[in-house]
């Protein structure tokens, strides 16, 4: 089934990716380009993801900051206990947080959101994911 591209007043231009059956766009936050992905449900509907994205976009800076803090809370000990390079000093929570940069947001039809961060070489270039549930509570941070 061929879907058309969308233009949303808040989310901007969204192009349909037929291979993945999702919509992809881009926006700028704090002078950085961020990828936006809205996944469709089993009937190829995008409305649940759009609804959640609008809710998050209204306070995106705060949610992005909270996601970074959640990553610090969950992954700082792992960094300092097992991911330090030879002669590398322990990383402080402030340094950890400052090295993260938001790269993309993925909104799922179940109203969960994945925040993907560049790790600033904290974990040798691996991307970090912070998962927010349908109630806007952070539930998981992983490499």
What structural keywords apply?
3 helices; alpha+beta; 29% helix; eight-stranded mixed β-sheet; single chain; 143 residues
Shape: elongated
Strand arrangement in the largest pleated sheet: 1-2-3-4-5-6-7-8
Radius of gyration: 16 Å
Largest sheet: 8 strands, mixed
Q: How much of the polypeptide forms β-strand, as a percent range?
A: 25-35%
- In the residues, how many domains can be counted? 1
- Indicate the mean pLDDT: 94
Query: What is the N-to-C succession of helices and strands?
Result: EEEEHHHEEEE
Give the structural class.
alpha+beta
Helix count from the secondary structure assignment: 3
Name the poorly predicted regions: none
According to DSSP, the number of beta strands is: 8
Q: Termini separation (Å)?
A: 35 Å
Helicity level: 25-40%
